[in-house]
């Protein structure tokens, strides 16, 4: 107990001195010894959120009660102090399962106020903003995500419809007739030419992948991952794809609204991710059909693209709806409330994309097809456009952190800090 009290006092003093170092005058500057400690504690200027994580990790490093809960605590024990890069790495390694919060004897209202899930969530939000590419777009993480997402989806839907009308009299007449009657053969490309859609959506998707790739590359460079062996890559991929660390460390699951364990978030994440991948596979197969075999849409109900898209759409809709329900009921004490608009915007876009896609399939031979197509294309475009600056980024950064954790476990002696 005395050791923990001494550590937390030291951590608070160091964090405070580090925050004052850039603005203090000569008369009010900290003593040389304390200044030297502050520089060691934060060799790169840390934000208030990062300093708070560093303070809590010092306390956790002395206690180690939660060492078996997830990957964060074993990685923490490899460090004697916590620099900016270490904090960013550990924050993205955290899955916010809540187990450590409910098990911690130093959680609020204790004076140590250890709340690892909330502190880590605050740093994750800052990480996405800091590593966004282009950097100016990082501010998008802090906007009202739900309003922006729906406004963007509606705006894009109207833009696509307007673009089709202005694309020429033939296209305009086709679209006008489609809104009033069934399109023969459920032919989407009679309304929007295939090459136009492929170019438009391909460009947006490639930009999203580029932006995410640049951001995560910067993150990996700063946290100094080291050399990735095949074994480390396989382990990281397994941990990411199975959501290993959403089991609470004991296989019973996470804590959501209270201290009861549940595997609901892990299951809903699986439904969402694999549903999304099945939808992506449906698009990929349809592209192969179109360009390699000359088979153009629409495809029969029992064809591979339609079956993949149907199963994927149902899975995505169920998973995203479940995640939204959990988000609405999650204990606010251990979350970063700033992230709720971003979280809910992403989930809403997933629901909108899957629901409109399934509706489009169900009513593709009716007069509603054209309207549903416009809504679906707008939702998909909004999802792609916001992908690098929304909740989707957490999966990319978390996978990168899992890779670094796998590399460290294979390293005989991990560095005391990631910046060494």
TrEMBL record:
Source domain of life: Bacteria
Keywords: Membrane, Transmembrane, Transmembrane helix
Keyword DNA damage (UniProt): no
Membrane-spanning intervals of the chain: 145-168, 188-212, 271-292, 304-326, 346-363, 369-389
NCBIfam families: CitB, PRK15033.1
Protein name: Citrate/tricarballylate utilization protein
Organism (species): Paraburkholderia tropica
């Amino acid at each position: 107990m005395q050791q923990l009290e001494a550590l937390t006092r030291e951590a608070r003093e160091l964090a405070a001195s580090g925050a004052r170092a850039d603005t203090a005058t000569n008369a009010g500057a900290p003593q040389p010894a304390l200044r030297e400690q502050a520089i060691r504690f934060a060799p790169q200027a840390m934000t208030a959120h990062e300093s708070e994580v560093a303070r809590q990790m010092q306390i956790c490093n002395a206690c180690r009660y939660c060492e078996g809960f997830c990957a964060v605590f074993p990685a923490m024990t490899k460090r004697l102090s916590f620099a900016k890069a270490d904090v960013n790495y550990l924050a993205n390694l955290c899955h916010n399962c809540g187990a450590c919060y409910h098990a911690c004897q130093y959680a609020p209202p204790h004076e140590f106020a250890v709340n690892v899930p909330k502190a880590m969530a605050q740093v994750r939000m800052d990480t996405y903003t800091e590593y966004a590419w282009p950097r100016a777009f990082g501010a998008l993480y802090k906007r009202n995500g739900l309003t922006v997402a729906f406004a963007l989806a509606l705006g894009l839907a109207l833009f696509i419809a307007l673009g089709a009308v202005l694309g020429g009299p033939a296209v305009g007449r086709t679209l006008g007739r489609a809104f009033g009657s069934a399109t023969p053969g459920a032919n989407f490309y009679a309304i929007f030419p295939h090459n136009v859609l492929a170019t438009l959506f391909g460009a947006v998707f490639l930009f999203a992948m580029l932006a995410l790739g640049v951001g995560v590359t910067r993150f990996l460079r700063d946290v100094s991952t080291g050399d990735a062996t095949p074994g480390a890559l396989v382990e990281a991929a397994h941990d990411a794809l199975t959501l290993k660390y959403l089991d609470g460390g004991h296989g019973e699951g996470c804590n959501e609204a209270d201290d009861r364990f549940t595997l609901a978030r892990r299951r809903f994440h699986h439904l969402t991710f694999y549903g999304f991948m099945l939808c992506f596979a449906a698009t990929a197969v349809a592209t192969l059909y179109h360009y390699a075999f000359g088979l153009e849409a629409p495809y029969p109900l029992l064809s591979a693209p339609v079956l993949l898209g149907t199963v994927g759409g149902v899975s995505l809709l169920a998973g995203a709806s479940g995640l939204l329900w959990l988000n609405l009921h999650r204990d606010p004490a251990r979350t970063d409330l700033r992230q709720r608009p971003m979280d809910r915007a992403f989930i809403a876009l997933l629901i909108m994309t899957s629901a409109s896609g399934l509706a489009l399939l169900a009513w593709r031979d009716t007069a509603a097809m054209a309207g549903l197509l416009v809504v679906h294309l707008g939702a998909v475009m909004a999802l792609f456009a916001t992908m690098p600056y929304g909740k989707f980024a957490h999966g990319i950064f978390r996978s990168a952190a899992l890779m670094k954790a796998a590399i460290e476990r294979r390293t005989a002696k991990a560095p005391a800090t990631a910046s060494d």
